[in-house]
């Protein structure tokens, strides 16, 4: 499903340069779930952003199926992200003037879906995360956990091949964090989508079948963990 090789990324130049990724290679199979952990500044989020085409790599290759992410220009990347990828971040990135349902519809409409179909899929996704009753609510009326569940619904409504989650529980208490993790696992079972999760919480990482640990821009450990 996802293959990356020799990924490098440097921020800054000269004495101020920081090598965020150092010839990183990674392969994820269809439906696989993996957590990326490591200390702050080790390259976890950079790796996820580069794999998802949100930031360009300085070198290396990225493939999602037979699609070469590293060869795409921005307009092509945007179309590829809408078609095959979903993203969940620590900050929910919900549009404050739109309802929960309208927020979920946004990427579907951007991908060219009809409004009627987008409405149907948005409601289906909100039902899956347990928020159909909040479909008309704006983000200001939602709790942090509810807002993150709307963000998950938005990310999976189009049934992407791979879901990238960058510290999705970082702003939540432990109970809400467990609920969000349960939903991410449910999406994997329900839709068979590949999940790559970046987290600083080793307890949550242990819930996934594979743990990848980074240090100083490199993958230093890649092992099987819990079974789901």
UniProtKB/TrEMBL annotation:
Gene3D superfamilies reported in the protein's UniProt record: P-loop containing nucleotide triphosphate hydrolases
PROSITE patterns associated with the record: ABC_TRANSPORTER_1, ABC_TRANSPORTER_2
Keyword annotations from UniProtKB, A to Z: ATP-binding, Nucleotide-binding, Transport
SUPFAM superfamilies on file: P-loop containing nucleoside triphosphate hydrolases
Membership in a protein family: Belongs to the ABC transporter superfamily.
Domain ABC transporter: 2-228
Protein name: ABC transporter ATP-binding protein
GO cellular component: membrane protein complex; plasma membrane
InterPro entries (UniProt xref): AAA+_ATPase, ABC_transporter-like_ATP-bd, ABC_transporter-like_CS, ABC_transpr_LolD-like, MacB-like_ATP-bd, P-loop_NTPase
Protein's organism: Paenibacillus albicereus
Source organism, top-level taxon: Bacteria
Cited SMART domains: AAA
Keyword Cell membrane: no
Nucleotide-binding is among the record's keywords: yes
């Amino acid at each position: 499903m996802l293959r990356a090789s020799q990924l490098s990324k440097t921020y800054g130049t000269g004495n101020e340069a920081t090598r965020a990724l150092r010839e990183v290679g990674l392969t994820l199979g269809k439906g696989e779930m993996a957590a990326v952990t490591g200390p702050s500044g080790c390259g976890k989020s950079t790796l996820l952003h580069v794999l998802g085409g949100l930031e360009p790599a300085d070198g290396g290759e990225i493939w999602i199926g037979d699609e070469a992410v590293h060869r795409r220009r921005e307009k092509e990347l945007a179309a590829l992200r809408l078609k095959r990828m979903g993203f969940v971040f620590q900050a929910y990135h919900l549009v404050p003037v739109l309802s929960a349902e309208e927020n979920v519809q946004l990427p579907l409409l951007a991908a060219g879906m009809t409004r009627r179909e987008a409405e149907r899929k948005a409601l289906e996704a909100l039902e899956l995360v347990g928020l159909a009753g909040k479909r008309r609510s704006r983000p200001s009326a939602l709790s942090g956990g509810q807002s993150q569940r709307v963000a998950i619904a938005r990310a999976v409504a189009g049934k992407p091949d791979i879901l990238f989650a960058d510290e999705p529980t970082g702003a939540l208490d432990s109970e809400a964090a467990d609920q969000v993790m349960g939903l991410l696992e449910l999406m994997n079972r329900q839709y068979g989508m590949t999940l790559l999760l970046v987290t600083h919480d080793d307890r949550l990482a242990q819930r996934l079948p594979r743990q990848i640990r980074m240090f100083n821009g490199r993958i230093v450990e890649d092992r099987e963990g819990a079974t789901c």
